[in-house]
Design brief:
The chain is α/β, with parallel strands linked by helices. It has nine helices and 35 strands. It binds uridine-diphosphate-N-acetylglucosamine (UD1) and magnesium ion (MG). The site of magnesium ion (MG) has 2 residues, from loops.
Length: 467
């Protein structure tokens, strides 16, 4: 056993995420925190970071669009509980709504905003560490343009108070150290301070920021932890959302390149929050990753592919111009070529679907070859049905596989077949009309048609042959 001193465990943590605001400047029917950023709702970014801190409780305060917001939160963080703020009376009032959800909790409370997606876990950990010196810790940043942010007024002992822009004097407005809104302190203490917050200010709101001056008046200390301005970027408008997207993508591309992924044209590749790409994978130009994609080491995604909810194994090659939809599972050395769509289908090792095909709700065995233009007819208008294709089966071009249906291992289907019955292992199935050949009939038919045309128009009759 080591005798080295163990680092002090931080206090147990509860996190409250404020997400009740309307976000009226988005000019949208969709609640602000549900607008997508990197393929997932804004609030999913905050939830993911919060989950990384392993909080004892995770509370989301909802108001505008509560039902939709709660559904999205439950999808990304099923452990989250909700507090409702019917009327938005300010950030302190919003935190107060979490009182019941925090009942009996003893430890630190961290307040985050649902519309501020880039705060890093390391930054919060620095705030938790600063709690050793201060009752309240606020996350601040030096603003290039302090605009309408709350200003942090400091003194010899740390943070004296926070003044909102609307209430600030010209001297206070000249301060460039601004409030990010992220705040940490003892849960019981913050709740007690909130009780004393009034709304006699320019906005007529209950400001969470007032807890700082109230703490100081009680002889408690407050401090500031600083972070980069980019980390506290809050989304209020579509322009800010677009800026945040660009910032996310720029960082994601750099991270991918640094981790050993080849991006031929990095500026044209778009990733989601959870995109995982292995070392020595090669990603061509104009590739879009939706949520839930894993690409293993050494796989290649060629130009103009769209992937979401799928897994691409080592040595597989996808595209150009392929679409992998949720549930597409490609084993090692699989080939998926141009104009192919794969959905909810497992392709075993070395299977090939190289051209113009739809493979949905299917299992494709090892080394099977799917000819051009093959379609799994998986939907009867009401239900989806499964197609099973055995190992090393050979599906002829333009085969319609009418599910539910099974093609056995090493079986073949003839080109143009409509397969409605199971095909046993090793069998050849032909599901098409037999070919009929009529000697010379094509020439005679053509001549007749041309003669008919000539008799109607009076033109071109002479060199058209007999009719
Ligand atoms: C707040 C801070 C300000 C800081 C800025 C950083 C206060 C009083 N001010 O100002 O010092 O510089 O954030 O972006 O805290 N919300 C609710 N319910 C409410 C009010 C707000 O849930 O009743 C949520 C909003 O949805 C949003 C967050 O709290 O996610 C911040 O509210 P917002 O109105 O944007 O505060 P700011 O005026 O930007
Ligand atoms: Mg704001």
């Amino acid at each position: 056993m080591s005798l080295a001193p163990q680092p002090l465990a931080p206090h147990p943590l509860a996190i409250v995420i404020l997400a009740a605001g309307q976000g009226s400047r988005m000019n949208s029917d969709l609640p602000k925190v549900l607008h997508p950023l990197a393929g997932v709702p804004l609030i999913a970014h905050v939830l993911r970071m919060a989950q990384g801190l392993e909080p004892a409780r995770l509370v989301v305060v909802t108001g505008h669009g509560a039902e939709a917001v709660e559904r999205a939160v439950a999808e990304h963080a099923p452990e989250a509980v909700f507090a409702h703020q019917a009327e938005q009376k300010g950030t302190a009032h919003a935190v107060a709504q979490a009182r019941n959800a925090l009942a009996g909790f003893e430890g630190d409370l961290l307040v985050l905003y649902g519309d501020t997606p880039f705060v890093r876990a390391e930054t919060v950990q620095a705030m938790q560490a600063a709690r050793a010196d201060h009752a309240l810790v606020v996350l601040g940043f030096q603003a290039a343009d302090p605009g309408r942010y709350g200003r942090l007024v400091t003194d010899g002992e740390g943070l004296e108070r926070i003044v909102e822009f609307k209430d600030a004097s010209p001297e206070e407005r000249a301060i460039t150290l601004c409030n990010s809104g992220v705040l940490c302190g003892g849960a019981g203490q913050i709740m007690g301070l909130i009780d004393a917050v009034g709304n006699a200010n320019a906005a007529g709101e209950y400001y969470l920021t007032d807890t700082v001056a109230l703490a100081r008046a009680k002889g408690l200390s407050a401090g500031v932890v600083r972070c980069d301005e980019g980390e506290t970027l809050g989304i209020n408008t579509r322009a800010e959302l677009a800026l945040a997207e660009a910032g996310f993508q720029a960082r994601a591309r750099v991270e991918a390149l640094e981790s050993g992924v080849t991006l031929t044209a990095p500026e044209t590749v778009f990733m989601a929050l959870d995109t995982m790409i292995g070392r020595d994978a090669v990603i061509g130009p104009n590739v879009v990753f939706g949520p839930g994609v894993t690409v293993e080491t050494g796989a290649e995604i060629r130009a103009f592919c769209h992937l979401e909810g799928c897994h691409v194994s080592r040595g597989a090659v996808v595209g150009p111009f392929a679409r992998l939809r949720p549930g597409a599972e490609l084993a090692e050395d699989v080939r998926v070529g141009n104009f192919v769509e794969i959905k909810n289908a497992v392709l075993d090792e070395g299977a090939k679907v190289n051209h113009l095909s739809y493979i949905g709700d299917a299992s494709v065995g090892e080394g099977a070859n799917i000819g051009a233009g093959t379609v799994t007819c998986n939907y009867d208008g009401v239900m989806k049905h499964h197609t099973t294709i055995g190992a090393r089966a050979f599906i002829g071009s333009d085969t319609m596989l009418v599910a539910p249906v099974r093609v056995g291992a090493e079986a073949m289907t003839g080109s143009g077949s409509v397969i409605t019955e199971d095909v046993p292992e090793g069998a050849l199935a032909l599901g098409r009309a037999a070919q009929v050949v009529k000697p010379e009939l094509a020439r005679r038919l053509m001549a007749r048609l041309k003669a008919v045309k000539a008799s109607k128009t009076g033109k071109g009759g002479r060199d058209q042959g007999e009719g």
